[in-house]
Amino acid sequence: MALRSTDILTQTPQGLYCPLGDFHIDPVRPVKRALITHGHSDHARSGHRSVMATRETLRIMGVRYGEDFADSTQEAILQESIRIGDVTVQFTPAGHVLGSAQITIEAGGTRVVVSGDYKRAEDPTCLPYEVVPCDVFITEATFGLPVFRHPNTRAEVRKLIDSVALFPERAHIVGAYALGKAQRVMALLREEGYDQPIHLHGAMERLTELYKSEGIPLGETPKVVAAERSKLAGAIVICPPSSIQDLWSRRFPDPVTCFASGWMRVRARARQKGVELPLVISDHSDWDDLCRTIQETGAGEVWVTHGQEDALVHWCTTHGIKARPLHMLGYGDEGEAEEASAAPADAGGNA
Amino acid sequence: MNRFAALLDRLGYEPRRNAKLRLLVDYFRHTPDPDRGYALAAMTGALMFKEAKPGLIRGLVEERTDPELFRMSYHYVGDLAETVALIWPAPGHESVAPADGTPTIGHNNPPPHVPTLTEVIETLATTSKSDLPARVAGWMDALDETGRWALIKLITRELRVGVSARLAKTAVAQLGGIEPDEVELVWHGLEAPYEDLFAWVEGRGEKPESGNPAPFRPSMLSHPLEDEDFAKLEASEFLAEWKWDGIRLQAAAGRGSDGRPVRRIYSRTGEDVSRAFPDLVEALDFEGAIDGELLIVRDGRVQTFNVLQQRLNRKAVTPKLIAEFPAHLRVYDILFEGEEDLRALPFAERRRRLEALVAKLDDPRIDLSPMVPFETWEDLAAARTDPASVGAGLDADAIEGCMIKRASSPYLPGRPKGYWYKWKRDPYLVDAVMMYGQRGHGKRSSFYSDYTFGVWREGLSGEELVPVGKAYHGFTDEELVKLDRYVRNHTVKRFGPVREVEYGKEKGLVLEVAFEGLQRSTRHKSGVAMRFPRINRIRWDKPAAEADRIETLEKILERGEQEVHPLKDQEA
Ligand SMILES: [Zn+2]
Ligand SMILES: [Zn+2]
C-alpha cells in the first residue's frame, strides 16, 4: 500500500522534514540530522549535529564554516541507495553548482524528489541534471514566470569578451555569486577562448581554488591587489555582486559594471543595480525548463518551495497536475542570501 | 535586426556619452548598407512609416498566452513591450500557451527567417494595416528576446535609447574622421538609407551635395547654476535674460539653387520640425540662422507651457489650431547672417546683430527676449523670484528663471563650461496630507510608492481634505521604505492595489510637495491639477491640521492664468 506523501515529507519551522527517516533537508535552523542538497549558504547552514551531502558539498561547507562544521559528516555517493530509518534515500546530480544533488526519498512504493536548486542548461563546472521519475516533485521557482527564458550562456559570455575588445582602456567588473556562478563564468570565458588572467576579488578565492582542485580548469586567476587596481585597464575582474557598486570597484580604470544573473533578463532589475552590461547567466531553471522538468518527472503532485510560486502552481493546475506553494522562508533569490556571508568584511580593504 | 537590437540594448544601459559614441561607431563600422543607414534613420527620427498601436501588440500576445500568466508577468516586469518580448511563445516554447489552446506553431515548419532591419522597415512602409498583425507575428517568432523588444519599440515609435540625432551623426562623422558639422551640413539633402553619406565618410565616394541651404547648426547649451558658483562669477562680466518656459528652436533660412527661399525650423537636437509650425516658417523672412524659444502668444501675452503643450499634442496642424495656438519665436541669439558665420563673435556683439535683424524683420511673430538689467547677483536673485517687478509684466508666468551669459561668450556647440548658466525659478511648495497609497509598477511593485495627497477646504460638513495630486517620486529609497511602512501601518481601507490611510485634523502624515505649475481641471475633485508634483520632504514633525488649504493653490493658479483662455467658452 502506498504511503501518503506527507508521511514521507512534511513542512516544519526548520524546513522540510522526513518523519520516517527522522532527518531534515536543507534546514534553515540547526537540527540533529541534516541532508544538504548543495553548498549555497541558504541551503547549507552551519550548526547541524550530523550532515549528509555529496563529497563536494561537504568540502564547500568545510571551506565556509571550518572543517569541524558538524559533529559528524557522511558522504553521499551519487546514485547509491542507502537506508535511513524507514526510508531509502538517493542523491542524484542537480546541475546547479559543483556537488549539487537532488534527494530522492522512497518508502512504501511512494517516491518523493526534493530537487533543491537545479538547472538544465549546460555547465562545464558540474554534473548535468538527471531526471528522476517520481510521484511528488518538490521544486524551486526562483525564475517561475514565463518572462524568464535564459538565453544561450555562450552568447552572453561573448558579449563580455566583445565589450572588452571595444573598450580596452576600461576594466570590466563582473558581479557573480562566489559559489558556482563565478566559476561558471570563468570556465565559459576559457571555453570561448579568453586566455588572459581573470582577476578575482578576495571573497572568490578559496571557493575558486576548491573548484580547481576538483579538476575544473579555470586558468590563471590572480587575486586583485588593492594598490594595483588602477593598472587593470582592459581586464576582467570577478567580484561578489555586493561589490560592483561600492568604493572597491571605483578604483579600477573607468569600470564597466557587469552582473551575471538570471535577474538581468528584466531591464528594471538591471537598472536598479546600476548595471551597464547585464549578462543573463543563471544557475537556476528558467520557466521552460521548470515546466519541462515537472512533466518529465511524471509527478502527479508538485510542491513549490520558494520563488515565484503562484505562476508555476497556476501552470501545474491548468496542466492537470496537483500543486501547492509552500511559501518557504529563508531561501534567497539565486544566492542573494549568500553574498552577505560570503564576502569577508575586510574584502574592501585588502582584496 | 538582431544586431540593431543588440546595439539598442547596450545603448539603453550606457550612461556615458563617449561610450555610446564608441558603440555607435562600432555598429556603423561592422554593419553593411543598407541596414546601418536605416538604423541611423531610426535614431535620427527620419523614418517614414505609420506606427503600430500598442493594442496591436497586446492583441497578438493575448492570442498566444495564458491570460493569468500574462497578467502576473506584466505586473512583475512593468513595461508592456518588454513583457511581450520576453513572454512571446516562439516556436518550441509552448509552455506559456493556454493549456487548452491549439498550438500556434506546427513543429514541422522550417525555422522562421530572421528579418533584417531593412526588411522590417521596407515592409512597414508598404504593408497594409490589415496585413500588419500577421507580419509582426512572423517577425516576433523569428527574433530573440532582445530582437522582439527592439522590434516593438521601433514599430510603436517608442525608441528611446538616449541617443540624440546629433550623437548619431557625430558617430557617422567619427567613422571617417571628419567634423560632425560637416555631416550636419550635408544631412538635410540626404535620405535613408544614406549610402552616399557612408560612402563619402569612408572615402569611397563624392561628398553628397548639400541640398539644404538652411541647415541646422548644433545648439549651445547651458549649465545649471549652483549656489557656490556665485563666489566664482563676476556679475559685471555677465548679461542676463529670462529663461522662457517654452521649447528651444533654431530657425534657419536661405536660398535654394533655384533662388527660391528655403526656411526650416529645427529642435535643439537638429530634428526638422518645420511641418509642425507652418505659421512660424512663413515668418522667417531673412537669411541666416537664429536661436530662440517657441512660445504661444495670444494678444501679446505669452501663455503658459500647458497651453503650448496643447498645440504640441495635436498631430494635425489645422488653420483652427494655428488660430487658437499662434506660434511665436522669442529669439536670443544669432548664428549666421546670410553666409556670414557669427558664432565666433562675443555674445554682446551677436546680440547687437540680432537686435538689428529683428527690427528689420518687423514681424509680430518674432521678437527679442529682453535683457534683465542687474548690477549684483542679489539684484538678479530678486528679479528671478519676482520677474514682474523688473518689467516682465504680464509674461512673468511663462518665465522659469534666468539665463546668465558671459558677454564675451562665443557660440559653441554642446555644453561648454564657463559661458552660459541657467538659474531656474524655485518650484512651488505646498504642505499636503497623505490620503492614499498605491502599489508601484515594475521594480517597485512590492512597495506602496504612489501617494495621493490633499489639502484642507471648507466642505459641506465642515473642514475636509480634498485630494489635489499624486506623486511617485522625489523621495530616496530609504524614504520609500519608511513611506511604505507608514501606509501599511496606517491603512483604514483597501481598494485593490490602493490603500486609504488615516488622515484628519489629529492624525495623518504631512508631505511637502514641490510642483512646477497648476492648471484648472474638471477631472479632479479639487478643480486643479499639478504639473510635475513630487515629494520634496516628508514632514514627520508637522501636525496634519497645519497643512495648507486650497486657497493657497487658488492664489498660485490666479497668478498663473491671469487671463481666461479666449476660446475656452466655445470649447466648454
Ligand atoms: Zn542554490
Ligand atoms: Zn536556493
TrEMBL record, chain A:
Its EC number is 3.1.-.-. The keyword Hydrolase applies. It comes from the Bacteria. Keywords: Exonuclease, Hydrolase, Ligase, Nuclease. GO terms for molecular function: exonuclease activity; ligase activity. This is Ligase-associated DNA damage response exonuclease.
TrEMBL record, chain B:
This is DNA ligase (ATP). It comes from Microvirga terrestris. PANTHER family: DNA LIGASE 1/3 FAMILY MEMBER, DNA LIGASE-RELATED. NCBIfam families: DNA_lig_bact (TIGR04120), PRK09247.1 (NF006701). It is an enzyme of class 6 (ligase). Its EC number is 6.5.1.1. The keyword Transferase does not apply. Residues 329-457 form the ATP-dependent DNA ligase family profile domain. Pfam families: DNA_ligase_A_C, DNA_ligase_A_M. One of its GO terms (molecular function) is DNA ligase (ATP) activity. It comes from the Bacteria. Keywords: ATP-binding, Cell cycle, Cell division, DNA damage, DNA recombination, DNA repair, DNA replication, Ligase, Metal-binding, Nucleotide-binding. It catalyses: ATP + (deoxyribonucleotide)n-3'-hydroxyl + 5'-phospho-(deoxyribonucleotide)m = (deoxyribonucleotide)n+m + AMP + diphosphate. The keyword Glycoprotein does not apply.
